[in-house]
Design brief:
heterodimer; A: 204 residues; mainly alpha; 10 helices; 65% helix; 0% strand; B: 221 residues; alpha+beta; Jelly Rolls; 2 domains; 6-stranded antiparallel sheet; 5 helices; 10 strands; 24% helix; elongated; binds zinc ion
């Protein structure tokens, strides 16, 4: 499953971004929830060449353009959970990520000294304000419910959940212990909980 | 009521990320205060996304495969923490709500100092060649008629003032770069707080007018 995911740029997808919004939303959703590589490959195959055209036009330099594509798609992979289909289409979201990166890149290249960054102007990659769904999710899932489903979690997620929910450690303690950034602990926790929730949903 | 908005051209360029940093900052802060312009920016952004990401013309020579595989090795990441929607600052016993875009700068804001008469100023270090200030005019405050050069942007954060040319209210946004003369003043009870950026400090060279050098960029035209 994990190897040999074909990059689908052999037959260019000629659809306009708005014509495949629903499909791309669904892919983003599965990247967010299960880190689904096949879904990401679909998103990547559709958007990476388009982003490259955009970046080339904007930056006029192949190497810098590819850097812009890389940074943009990397954000899509790492932060897919921040996409909210109620707020806009996938193409708009991905375009705004690229626009922000371009803005910061260009300012760096031009050596501009003003302390203005894209996050101030367009805070698109920010965590949503305390999401009631997420807290209720944690409250709803008890260890009894989770039972053997817990063992089906990927190792990394399992380790984090075990430390937090069984050993009662704080997320910071877990981060220090595993020598990983706090953000990673938080993401793994969230992903694991989401996964457990999905498993519970299909279980009964 | 807001009467002075950025132009559609400015809003569209803002959506595309094509405005200069300080102009973008001002437009963004205006949009925090103006639903109408915020909605326009969203429309422009949607439209641009559709246009900016067309099907690529070329090209089989680009190998995206390794890029994609490298990306998929990366761990998920949290987003940035959401900045507070707005922030309150205090001056002389009054409180003012600062739009979200500008909240980060309130942390590095200098102390309020009283200039001549009923004018107060607090500098904001945004770096570069530009000079940014919060400026507060108490009720009955005014600046003697003066001229100045250079481009300056002003956003009314709270209150009203007039300058003999027009009346301005909270949220109003102006860019001026002429040499007109005017006499800004306010008679609003709550006075008037503005945020102002000039691209170059202005200098008066003679007589009493030198006194207003530090805030000459406040008023436009
Ligand atoms: Zn407006």
């Amino acid at each position: 499953m994990l190897i040999g995911i074909p990059l689908e740029n052999n037959k260019p997808d000629v659809r306009k971004p708005k014509d495949c919004a629903a499909e791309m939303s669904a892919y983003l959703d599965s990247v967010a929830k299960t880190r689904c590589k096949a879904s990401f490959a679909k998103i990547f195959g559709y958007f990476a060449p388009r982003l490259r055209s955009y970046a080339l036009k904007q930056m006029g330099n192949e190497a810098i353009a590819m850097e812009l594509v890389q940074d943009t798609m990397s954000n899509v992979w790492q932060k897919a959970h921040l996409f909210n289909s109620e707020k806009g289409s996938p193409s708009t979201w991905i375009f705004t990520i690229a626009r922000n990166i371009r803005f910061d890149m260009l300012r760096k290249l031009q050596n501009r000294k003003e302390d203005v960054c894209s996050d101030d102007l367009w805070p698109i990659l920010c965590e949503q304000t305390a999401d009631p769904k997420e807290t209720s999710l944690e409250e709803k899932i008890t260890l009894e419910q989770v039972g053997e489903l817990f063992n089906e979690l990927p190792l990394k997620q399992k380790a984090v959940i075990e430390a937090i929910y069984i050993d009662g450690k704080s997320q910071q303690e877990v981060a220090d212990e595993l020598c990983i950034p706090l953000g990673t602990v938080k993401s793994r926790t969230r992903l694991a909980l989401q996964r457990l929730k999905d498993m519970l949903a299909t279980h009964d | 009521m807001i009467k002075f908005h950025p132009t559609n051209e400015q809003l569209s360029q803002f959506a595309d990320g094509l405005l200069g940093a300080t102009e973008a900052l001002m437009v963004s802060a205006h949009c925090d205060m103006c639903e109408r312009c915020m909605a326009k920016v969203e429309l422009y952004t949607d439209a641009s996304a559709e246009i900016a990401l067309p099907q690529s013309q070329d090209d089989d020579s680009v190998d995206f495969g390794s890029m994609m595989h490298n990306i998929m090795q990366e761990e998920p990441e949290e987003g940035i923490q959401l900045t507070p929607k707005s922030q309150i600052i205090e001056l002389d016993g009054r409180t003012f709500e600062i739009p979200r875009t500008l909240t980060r700068y309130t942390k590095s804001m200098g102390n309020w100092s009283r200039l001549v008469g009923k004018l107060w100023q607090a500098p904001v270090d945004i770096g570069g060649e530009t000079v940014a200030n919060f400026i507060y005019m108490e009720k009955g405050g005014s600046v003697p008629e003066h001229t100045h050069r250079g481009s300056e942007m002003t956003l009314v954060i709270n209150g009203e003032f007039s300058d003999g040319i027009a009346d301005y209210d909270s949220g109003d946004f102006m860019i001026m770069d002429c040499n007109n003369q005017h006499t800004p003043s306010t008679n609003a009870d709550e006075g008037c707080l503005v945020f102002s950026i000039v691209d170059k400090p202005l200098h008066f060279t003679s007589g009493w007018a030198r006194l207003i050098n530090p805030f000459s960029h406040l008023f436009f035209k």
